[in-house]
Structures are given as C-alpha cells and as structure tokens.
C-alpha cells in the first residue's frame, strides 16, 4: 500500500512537473523534456520517427520533434493520468471499504490488528475524509473533537515538515508524509528523479535517513489518531444514526465506541438501554454503562446513574444513600441542571431537609434556566424556608418563572393582578396567602415513603438542551414526553424531572384553590389519574352508541327487567311489617269472622286499593282448581304471609286433608295464623311453622310421620325454589303424582329451577302455565314406594 501510494504521489509530481508542456511553452524546452523522458515511455512512440530522420535541417527536425511530441505527448500523459487516477480510485475504494467495515461491524473493529502501516493509512484516510465531511456539516457543535484531530495533525506536520516544503498547507499533508517514503524508493528504482537531483548526487542517500525516523513518528502518530479517533467518530456516527432513526446502528456504534472507554459513548449506551433504543430495555445494564461513564467523569452520567440507583434499590442503606447524594452533588457541581433541581427538592424534604442547601441548589437550577426551580425558590422566599422570608423577592421570582413560561407561576401572578392594582405586589401576595399561615415547619411536608422513594418513580425526564453538546443523542433519539407529563407542557423548556416539592400551605392558598387542575405536585402524581379519566371518557363515548343499539334492540326486555326490579324492590319493602299489619288490620276488621269466603273477599278488596302480596283472585282460582283436582291429604305451603292462599287451600281440602304452611317472618306468621283462625279453621287442619323454609323441610318428616306431600305451593322466595325442591327430593317427602305449584316462576331467579325440572323428564312433567302459576307433576321417585296417604294424620292432633 505504501508503494502504491508512493507511485501515486510520484505520478502526481510528474504530472505537475509536465504541466507546462501542455501549455506549449517552447519547442526547445519541449525537446529537452522529451529527450529526458524515460525510454520506456518514449520507446513505443519514437522509433519510426527517428528512423525517418535521415538528414534535413535542424528546423525541420525541431518541427518534426514538436509535431512528434504533439502527437505522442497526449497519449503518454493520458496513460500516466489513467494509471494515477486508477490507483487513486483503488485507494479510495480501500478507504471506503475500511470505513464501512469499521462502522458496520463491531467485531471487525477489534479485529483490525493488521500491519500498523496499513491500518494507520486506512484509518487516517477515512478519518480525514470523515473529519472534513463532519466539519463541513457542523456535526460537532463545539468542534472539540475536530480540534483534537487538528492537534494530531499539527503533530504530524511538525514531524513531516522537513520533507513537505510546498504541499503541507493543504489538508492532504498527512498523505504526503507517507507518500514521500515510497516515492523515494520508487523513483530510485525507476531512475526518474532527474529533475530534482543534481548529477553525482544520490537522492536516496540524501532523503532516506531522516525519513525513517519521521515515518516512524508518523506511524506512531497515526496509531494514536486511530486509537483515539475511532471511539469519537463512532460516537458521532451513532448520534447521526440515531438522528435518522436508525437505532440499531446507533447502538452498535455507541457500544463499539464505549468498549474503547469513551465516556460519552458509554453514556449513550446507557441511554439506549434505559430507553430501549436499538436494544431491549435493561435498567441494570443502563446503570452499569452510566456508572462507567460517570467513572470517566461524565456529569450527565453521574446524575443518571444516581437516578438508576434510586430506582433499582428501593431500600438503600445510609451509605448507599450518601453515595448517591454524592453523585448528584458532583453532577450538580458540574452544572447538570437536573441534578441541581433534584437536590434542591431533595433537601426540602425529610430525611435530608436542609433549608439552606435546598435554596442553594434551587437557586443554582433556577439560574441555570429551570423555571420550576425558580418557582420553588419563590415558594421558599414566600414561606421563609431556608431564607429570610421576603414576599417582594418571592414575587420577583414568580415573575421570572412566569416569564420563562412556568404556568404555575403565571397563575400565581394572575391571582396577584386583581389586588396588585390597588396595593403593592408583595402586599398583595401577603394578602392572598392562606390564613392562618403555616409555620415553616409545616410548610415543607415530607413526601418520602422510604429513603428518596419519590425519586424512584421512573419519571420521564426531559433531556437537557446541552445534552447534545456533551455528545449525547438523548435530545434527538428520545421521543418527547407526553404533553401532559412534560415540563414543556407547563412551558418549562428543557426543565429537568423534579421530585415533589410539596408545600402543604399551597393546598389552601386561594389561587390554587381556584385552579384545582394545577398541582404543585410532580406531574407524575396527577397525570395517571387524568389519563385514567380520559380513558374512561373515551370508553363511555365509545360504548354510548353500543348502549343505544342495545336499548333499541332489547327495549321490551329491558322494560320488563326494570319493572321486575321495581317489583322485587317493592316486594322486599312491602313484605315489611307495615304491609302485613295493614293487610291484617283491614281483613280482620272488614271480614265476617268464621266465613272463609268473606275473608278471601276482604283480601281482594284490600288488594284492589293497596299493594298486596297475596296470591290474588285469578291465581287463587287456579289454585282452587288444583286443590280440588289433587285433593291432597298433605299439602305444603311455603310463604304464608297474611294467610290468603292458606285459607284458599284449607277451604277446599278433603276432610282428612292437612296443611303445613311455613313463614319465616314472625309478624307475618302471627297475623297469618290469626287470619286462618278467623276464617274458621282449626289447628287440627293446619300448622304454621314459623321458620325459614329449609328448616321447615328439614323437620317435615316429624310432622308428616310416614305421610308424603301430595301438593306443594311455593310462594315465598323465588331464589330458594330449587334449593327447597331438592331438599324435598332429598328428604323423600314428595308423593308420586305430587303437584308442585310455583308462583312467579317467570322471574330470572327461577331459571335454575326450570332447568332442573326440564332436565329430568322422567321425574317431572311440566303443565301448561296458567295465571302465572307453574304446575309441575312429580312422578314416582326412585326408592320411594307410595305411602299411605292417611298415615300422618295423627301427627297434627
Ligand atoms: C308473596 S308472600 C306469600 C303470599 C301468600 N302466599 C298469600 O297468598 O297471601 C311471601 C311470603 O313468604 C315469606 N318468605 C320468604 N322467604 C321465605 C323463606 N325462605 N322461608 C319462609 N318464608 C319465606 C315472606 O315473609 C312472605 O311473607
């Protein structure tokens, strides 16, 4: 490569040296130049011409030579040009290939362990090209890295200056250093140094000795350039890639650069891991790279490493906590605004509360352009926390924060405006403070759940404007936080993430009371709730049309459901003692005692004017028909209430028939029993069991003896129908052919009962429903032989 480069240099030198020939300066000069050209170049062109020169005068010869030159010169130099440009093109391709392999493969980066000359040459060429491009495009804002490379160039200029007397003013002087070596060898071998050397002198002897040392120095310099420039340029390319959204390439570049120990790249790798850019999110690795960068003195990395520590270790030891604070303080001292703001708030709260330190850091952050810190500083002045209380200064600070775009400060100032027209602003501020004023002790309220726990919220952090200048791609690579959570939303351009500065008094101050949507808390505290609210609103908005469609489609069913709900509610309430008492009172007063028909008629009269739970005349007639048809010896009624259906059954029972009626409500049981007695029936014909139906069924056997139920009326709690039916089945109390009547079986609560019956066709037969009473016939139960229907009669006496 060095030889090729030397050849190119020599060719270029020759081209430059021959340039005047093309301008036809003079024939003599041309002739001399032609004669002095190497034989190899002239031999292929001149023989035929020389053979033809058998005499003639000198003018003719000169003209012929001139014409010969004009004829032969163009092809000769075109050939040289072609060779030179071809070699240059090869070199350029090599450089491009090298650069490509450097930047596209991390592994290849570490594999460039070839001969240092080749490596140095390629890297040097690549870096120079990149350097020029990047400088021209102002990729490096501060030009720090450019000047670094420039200094390396200067070193090289010094080392190679002795041999580069005329060409080193151009940016290509580094190439001249290497070219000079090979060109010397090449020239000597080709014997073409006639123009630059005087007769009797050996140019190789003259130049070779000092060039060896210079070349060694140059090579060392190039190695230094390579070692130090690779991570810088990789980091720059990573940033460029991130800017164009190529995060995978960006991460590869950052990682490759970070492996060289370049702290800015380490920081950027940390950002990639933290934000999941070009690599899977990994907070542990992010912390590790931040740590490396912080160790290398990267200020932003110190701040971010401290945040990682706070986030990763929920319960820090005191030592860890102090180490973390130390990191934050180091970053703050380096001018990292986020760290200053963090510390300002951190020292305003327990367990680190220190008013003076809080004010110190808040002031630093405010002067560093953080308007929210300016607002907090104003609060400190307002409340006299860490400083002498001064409303005037507080107003001044609020004004500054408002001017910087802080909305909270603007709200405070707008509240001042109304009174400030009449009194000075500081007086106005004093007047609108909440009364009674909180003491300083109360003003700053502890918000930490554990040590620094509110810093562990993983809040989205606004990148600093200067992060770009520190070589960070944060500002370019990361999406802006949501408007609601972003400090930008409150007009705080580039504001850092704040932990909560919670001044309890602000919850009571009048201006904030008028602006409930604005919180002095960290945005993170109210953003989730507002997001939830927005989500719920969207959900409602999205489901409204669906609801409308459902209402339209199921209007009838919904109406029925609504009525049933009302009815159930009414039932529950009407089953209270008020309903029972009023019913009993009316019937007892208005009926003819001893006459069951009069009792029933009085019930009906009452039901015509009042809500009633009685079965009613229509269903009652159906019940009558069933009782007459079945003529049960043993009938069971669940739900006595005031005794209406009991009287209906009793009056139609056969002479040997008995009724067991169950009522769990004591009042209803009392008045129901009285009405039955008023209707003229005796306890030998009926028995009222005042207990829940399940208890009654459990002890029915003792009442029935060996008898079985031929008829059951369920008119108590629809939800218990199935349970009680199964209990009757279990107890084996249903006689073959027993008729079961279920009131209100159309209610949804009876679904399970209906399924149960429908799924046992061998056991039950459902009769056409009449008057809302479901009639089901029970067949012979397995294991239960028909019983003597008169066996249980003695039990009631
Ligand atoms: C609709 S009323 C009965 C009406 C009665 N059949 C009539 O025609 O006058 C229902 C009665 O059943 C009672 N009841 C509800 N659940 C009960 C249960 N699990 N056990 C016993 N009685 C119950 C209530 O207290 C209420 O008095």
From TrEMBL:
Lineage: Eukaryota, Metazoa, Chordata, Craniata, Vertebrata
Gene Ontology MF terms: O-methyltransferase activity
Superkingdom classification of source: Eukaryota
Stretches with biased composition (Polar residues): 178-191
Pfam hit, one: Sel1
Annotated segments matching region Disordered: 43-64, 157-214
Protein name per UniProt: Catechol O-methyltransferase
GO biological process, one term: extrinsic apoptotic signaling pathway via death domain receptors
Keywords: Membrane, Methyltransferase, S-adenosyl-L-methionine, Transferase, Transmembrane, Transmembrane helix
Family assignment from sequence similarity: Belongs to the class I-like SAM-binding methyltransferase superfamily. Cation-dependent O-methyltransferase family.
GO annotation, cellular component aspect: mitochondrion
Parts of the chain that traverse the membrane: 532-555
Composition skew (Low complexity), residue ranges: 43-54, 157-172
